[in-house]
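User: Here's a protein and a ligand (zinc ion). What would the complex look like?
Assistant: Let me lay out the input and then the predicted complex.
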Amino acid sequence: MRRMYRRLFAVAAVLAASSLPFSAQERIDSSINSRIRTEESQHSEIMHTLHYLTDVYGPRLTGSPNHKAAAEWAVKQMTEWGFANGHLEPWDFGHPGWSNEHLEVHMTAPVHDALVVEALAWTPGTNGTITVPAFNLVPPEGPEVESGATPGGRGPAHLGPTRTELQAYLDGVAEKVHGRAVLVGKPIFVPVNLDPPAGRMTDEAAHCRFDAEAANDPACRNQGRGRGSGAGAARADHPSDRLSTRDVSKAIDQFLVSNKALLRINDAGRPNGQIVAFSNATYDPAQTVPTIVMRNEDYGRIARILADGTPVTLEANIVNRMYPEGKTSYNAIAEIPGTDKKDEVVMLGGHLDSWHSATGATDNAIGCAVMMEAARILKAAGVTPRRTIRVALWSGEEEGLLGSLAYVKQHFGTAEAPTSEFAKFNGYLNVDSGTGRVRGASVFGPDDDARILREALASFKDLKFEGVIPTRSRATGGTDSTSFNNAGLPGIGFGQDPIEYGSHTHHTNLDTYERIIENDVRDSAVVIAATLYQLAMQDAMLPRFSATDMPPPVAPR
Ligand SMILES: [Zn+2]
């Protein structure tokens, strides 16, 4: 009944709009979508932007000089395109910057070989070359979990040891770690994968995820739109006397520091030489020994040789550097000023910061390049936006959406405690899932928001854009649009073809320029430029939840 009412209302609204005076409607140019397509097909800057953000300024770890240089370059580039008000906006990261400046690790006995490794961020260097015996520390894992294996071939899941069990084990090996390189954990068995990764979303899957009617489509019943992964539920069951993987790792860090180990080695646990290296969670190098993540193949080889009873000697030279000035980090901002509604704002962006073991092309230099491009297309096509268009390239995303949360808090506040800018904000568009073309989007707000965007983008079916669905979730999640949702503002997150994101590039040492599909990202820029145009030009801003409909606030995670 309610749904039908809304449909009738929509028809009535269209009829009403067609009877508005000509001046109120002439701002929407019906040829705009073809002009956007022409500009991108003839003058794309997107791969040039990507080259600078990755090859020249990558990696872009939050707080590092590279990140700041990349942000400065992006502002300079957008200023050259004719954007106004380009600047870096500081926020308090609270930790020094860090970068790895030299890294070589070899096995020197019983055979000589170079080893493939990455440094863990915010850990110390080795202070020169060290040549040390290796030891494989295998902490107790606790009882097996009944409900099956952990993902990625890591064998059966375990509940973790109690603190007493872990301490008893560590006491027994204290002398064996002194002055050594310590491989932490038994090698992870990664089975050969005979199932090719998803690559493209099928049309059926895109329909189930982004079509407004899919909720009632029996064929979509197992495609799980909007449902959580269930990981939270598993965590809630964790017995309180058992240590989590993170707790065990932290205890081992303290143990290795106090027993003067010289190097910690973690198993990357992924196939084909892939390494994901995150950070020391304390951001304090004094809390850990020099730490590297080693490719699974090298880790397994060393562990197997040690298990034979044959000593292994490793040589390592790691130079890491701290940058105290990194305690202040920056979001990069530039605008295309609006005209008759210039105090109202449409934002678009992605995070410019990356992890440090590659140049962060799919995560997320390409998202920044696509958003810069979408705004550039409108500028180059001669659009004079009614509302101000503002590009924001965030930092601190990888450490917990920190840059965008700080920005939203400072500029907009929340639905419960708004600033004066809150009411003047129309929407924020975000891309952050790799190189795949955009296939759909979700928007925080009442169902009408999704309908308005869906209608605006209906002519992009040829580019495989399926639709827009509403979300009511204010939980912060995988990317910066959720910082806006969290405040009760219309965050618009695009969903993309997976391509190699989950299987190869997301957070890995393989995330480079070569992994970008130019046709896909150019099509994404076209669809997003068209969305941006509508949000900047339509008479009304996106409807918001009323105070009574607004979902309750959720603390940022
Ligand atoms: Zn990302």
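Summary: The chain has two domains: 37-96+326-537, 97-194+241-323.
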